[in-house]
Design a protein that fits this description.
It contains nine helices and no strands. The radius of gyration is 16 Å and the shape is globular. It folds into two domains: 43 residues, Up-down Bundle (Single alpha-helices involved in coiled-coils or other helix-helix interfaces), CATH 1.20.5; 106 residues, Up-down Bundle (AhpD-like), CATH 1.20.1290. By secondary structure, the protein is an all-alpha fold.
Length: 179
């Protein structure tokens, strides 16, 4: 049971209702995460704005999903693992690839480096070592991409934490944290 229940669209102001309507039009539903963030219009708008900007970055949708899976696993967020497993599948990530990304691994050296860097950033709370930076650079992650990975870690950690605080009810096929 949720500790912070999702808002009911009929009980929110017009701007929030319009935002949730746009989410529904885009996604086909209003995921509980969005309806829970809607308690704070600033939090909802901040999340949506950063997500939109990052979708126009250098990382592909597939790569962003691999990072999201690595972050959700490291933060032990079942909601985000469940949501991003489905989203990753929609952009061509196989179940085996999703499992590898969750472990900071992958068959493709560049994708493995992205997932590994993301997990390292989360695990070490940003205090990565010189060897972590060097490993990422050797795999082709330049300084700009490194900052983009950090931004994706941040946006995913935000939703991981929001879901854990709220106890958001999972409205996707459930994926367990265990590997």
């Amino acid at each position: 049971m949720s500790r912070i229940a999702p808002v009911v669209s009929s009980n929110v102001d017009a701007k929030v209702a319009a935002t949730l309507k746009q989410v529904k039009a885009s996604v086909g539903m209003v995921p509980n995460l969005f309806a829970t963030l809607a308690h704070s219009p600033a939090a909802l708008d901040g999340y949506l704005s950063l997500s939109k900007v990052l979708s126009h970055g250098r990382l592909s949708g597939r790569q962003r999903e691999l990072v999201a899976l690595a972050v959700a696993q490291e933060n032990e967020c079942r909601y985000c693992l469940s949501a991003h497993t489905g989203l990753a599948k929609a952009v061509g990530v196989s179940e085996a690839e999703a499992l590898k990304a969750r472990g900071g691994d992958g068959d493709d050296p560049f994708e493995r480096a992205l997932a590994s860097l993301a997990k390292t950033i989360v695990r070490q709370r940003g205090h990565v070592l010189d060897k972590d930076i060097e490993r990422a650079r050797k795999a082709g992650i330049d300084d700009g991409l490194m900052m983009e990975v950090v931004a994706n870690v941040v946006v995913n950690t935000f939703t991981n934490y929001a879901n854990e605080v709220a106890g958001t009810e999972i409205d996707f096929p459930v994926v367990e944290v265990k590997l």
